[in-house]
Amino acid sequence: MIIRRFCSRAILSDLTVPPPNPQRLLRAAVLGLPNAGKSTLVNQLVGRNVAGVSPKPHTTRSQALGVFTEGDHQVVLIDTPGVVSLQYGRKMKFSKPFVTGPKRSTDEADLMLVMIDASDRYTRFKLNEQLLKIMKEVNLPTSLVINKVDLLGYKQLLLKIVDSINSQSTAHPFNEVFMISALTGDGVDKLKDYLLDNTKPCDWLYDVHTYSNQSLEDQLAEVVREKLFKHLHKEIPYSIKQRLVICEERDDVLYIHKKLTCTKSSQVSIVVGSGGKTVKAIADEAQSHMESLLSRPVQLILSVNHSNK
């Protein structure tokens, strides 16, 4: 029996406060290659973790929303899976929604942010063909965000990157160019001001105290998933399935039991680790993250099993 006495509540949106008038809204789609730092940027703009972050590519598997509200301005950030070609998607056996997610995210967007990883010497000088195709098809106001500038050795290289990217987007030129470090927050305030300045008169989509479209259960799953990617390697963290067994309050402590199911029996010992060290490290870090997210004591138990299904 699955107990969800607490996790069924919506995350961080318990308080209903009458919003000021007039309301203004902007929906911005964040696009880029895998591991460009899209989720880190969304977290930085929102001011809390609403999107899973990992140094491994393809960890954002579905569209997630981050929301921040200042005064009468609300900005909804659409964090998407990394842009990949249809051929690559078939090769990696990604689902169709995963491959088409970045394009679909623009359907309800007012503006696009295209992110480039300045630290990746293989991709930083070139706009991905799939990204260019999306930019041309949707014809939305688009700004270029050069990320991870803190990892560059000298400014001249950064200017070369900007010139190279701009030269490839003459058919759909960028409105603005931002140079940031999503990890440290350097330059993010200017981007945040730009987004707020581009809001238009429109009813808000979310309550002022809502920061994500994900339920608490989804958020907790993202926390565990982030730690799985940190401690496990190769295909293992991608294939593990989570199931919530218990999520309930006991004496002001939130007790959570999640079952982690591996696709191969040989993976179980790897996830558990010698003497249970690996799964304990995952649980301890995830529990600490959850306590920070919820501002309350949490006790997390992770059990590991195997299933061929």
From TrEMBL:
<protein>
    <recommendedName>
        <fullName>GTPase Era, mitochondrial</fullName>
    </recommendedName>
</protein>
<feature type="domain" description="Era-type G">
    <location>
        <begin position="24"/>
        <end position="202"/>
    </location>
</feature>
<dbReference type="GO" id="GO:0000028">
    <property type="term" value="P:ribosomal small subunit assembly"/>
</dbReference>
<dbReference type="InterPro" id="IPR015946">
    <property type="entry name" value="KH_dom-like_a/b"/>
</dbReference>
<dbReference type="InterPro" id="IPR006073">
    <property type="entry name" value="GTP-bd"/>
</dbReference>
<comment type="similarity">
    <text>Belongs to the TRAFAC class TrmE-Era-EngA-EngB-Septin-like GTPase superfamily. Era GTPase family.</text>
</comment>
<feature type="region of interest" description="G5">
    <location>
        <begin position="180"/>
        <end position="182"/>
    </location>
</feature>
<dbReference type="InterPro" id="IPR004044">
    <property type="entry name" value="KH_dom_type_2"/>
</dbReference>
<dbReference type="InterPro" id="IPR009019">
    <property type="entry name" value="KH_sf_prok-type"/>
</dbReference>
<dbReference type="InterPro" id="IPR027417">
    <property type="entry name" value="P-loop_NTPase"/>
</dbReference>
<dbReference type="InterPro" id="IPR005225">
    <property type="entry name" value="Small_GTP-bd"/>
</dbReference>
<dbReference type="GO" id="GO:0019843">
    <property type="term" value="F:rRNA binding"/>
</dbReference>
<feature type="region of interest" description="G2">
    <location>
        <begin position="58"/>
        <end position="62"/>
    </location>
</feature>
<dbReference type="Pfam" id="PF01926">
    <property type="entry name" value="MMR_HSR1"/>
</dbReference>
<dbReference type="GO" id="GO:0005525">
    <property type="term" value="F:GTP binding"/>
</dbReference>
<feature type="region of interest" description="G1">
    <location>
        <begin position="32"/>
        <end position="39"/>
    </location>
</feature>
<feature type="region of interest" description="G3">
    <location>
        <begin position="79"/>
        <end position="82"/>
    </location>
</feature>
<dbReference type="Pfam" id="PF07650">
    <property type="entry name" value="KH_2"/>
</dbReference>
<dbReference type="InterPro" id="IPR005662">
    <property type="entry name" value="GTPase_Era-like"/>
</dbReference>
<keyword id="KW-0694">RNA-binding</keyword>
<dbReference type="GO" id="GO:0005759">
    <property type="term" value="C:mitochondrial matrix"/>
</dbReference>
<keyword id="KW-0342">GTP-binding</keyword>
<dbReference type="GO" id="GO:0043024">
    <property type="term" value="F:ribosomal small subunit binding"/>
</dbReference>
<feature type="region of interest" description="G4">
    <location>
        <begin position="147"/>
        <end position="150"/>
    </location>
</feature>
<keyword id="KW-0547">Nucleotide-binding</keyword>
<dbReference type="InterPro" id="IPR030388">
    <property type="entry name" value="G_ERA_dom"/>
</dbReference>
